[in-house]
TrEMBL record:
InterPro entries: Fe3_Rdtase_TM_dom (IPR013130), MsrQ-like (IPR022837). It is a multi-pass membrane protein. Residues 55-162 form the Ferric oxidoreductase domain. Part of the MsrPQ system that repairs oxidized periplasmic proteins containing methionine sulfoxide residues (Met-O), using respiratory chain electrons. Thus protects these proteins from oxidative-stress damage caused by reactive species of oxygen and chlorine generated by the host defense mechanisms. MsrPQ is essential for the maintenance of envelope integrity under bleach stress, rescuing a wide series of structurally unrelated periplasmic proteins from methionine oxidation. This is Protein-methionine-sulfoxide reductase heme-binding subunit MsrQ. It comes from Collimonas rhizosphaerae. Heterodimer of a catalytic subunit (MsrP) and a heme-binding subunit (MsrQ). The lineage of its organism: Bacteria, Pseudomonadati, Pseudomonadota, Betaproteobacteria, Burkholderiales. Its cofactor is FMN; heme b. The chain crosses the membrane at residues 51-68, 80-99, 119-138, 150-168, 180-198.
Length: 218
């Protein structure tokens, strides 16, 4: 079983942190070197949206991967990965608010109401905010472990809204390849989660029945 020492884990976490910043660094580099293409706003919007979904999928994959491999240390990376999903969602939303509406919140909200695919994306972004705000040890203690877990399981719902937003955005060009890939990944991760939940429930039921059947010593 691979179990990194504290020093190895710190190096691994720092390495993953640097890797997670590369898409943002690439956008900055392309912006300064005039390589964002004919439509820079569309390039930034699509790139930041894609990476939001990538990091949501990676974050959701942590628990199934931990259960398959027994690498419990993976849980210590989940918060960082989830916050990077929020970081790229903020970049995606800021691009929409800044370049499409020049920080005119009223016009932005009109656009949110008028265009369903933006409505769904906006709802997904808003739902990510409490997840990001409660990603601290202090908030886990305040909410309690079970309530915190239930809250953060809503990331599955957020991912589905994000994929629907992506699907509707691609509907005009009839290009559904990426939304289908994202949807398949999230569905598979959800099925794995359901499988482990049912298996744990079955094990607990079997253990309870065993205790009830086992005679107590006189």
């Amino acid at each position: 079983m691979f179990n990194p020492a504290p020093g190895q884990f710190k190096f691994l976490k720092a390495f993953l942190f640097a890797l997670a910043l590369l898409p943002a660094a690439r956008l900055l580099l392309f912006g300064f070197t005039d390589r964002l293409g004919a439509n820079p706003i569309e390039f930034i919007t699509r790139s930041s949206g894609d990476w939001t979904l990538y990091f949501i999928c990676i974050t959701l994959a942590v628990t199934p991967l931990r259960r398959f491999t027994s690498w419990n240390w993976l849980v210590k990376l989940r918060r960082m990965l989830g916050l990077f999903a929020f970081f790229y969602a903020c970049l995606h939303f800021t691009t929409f608010l800044w370049f499409d509406h020049f920080f005119d919140v009223g016009e932005m909200l009109k656009d949110v109401v008028k265009r369903p695919f933006i409505t769904v994306g906006f709802i997904a972004f808003v739902l990510l905010i409490p997840l990001a705000l409660t990603s601290t040890n202090g908030m886990i203690r305040r909410l309690g472990g079970k309530r915190w877990q239930w809250l953060h399981r809503s990331l599955y719902g957020v991912s589905m809204l994000g994929i629907l937003h992506f699907w509707w955005m691609r509907a005009g060009k009839h290009n559904f390849e990426k939304p289908i890939v994202f949807g398949t990944i999230v569905a598979a991760l959800l099925l794995v989660r359901v499988y482990f939940a049912l298996r744990n429930r079955s094990s607990q039921r079997a253990a309870l029945q065993k205790r009830q059947v086992t005679p107590t010593p006189s």
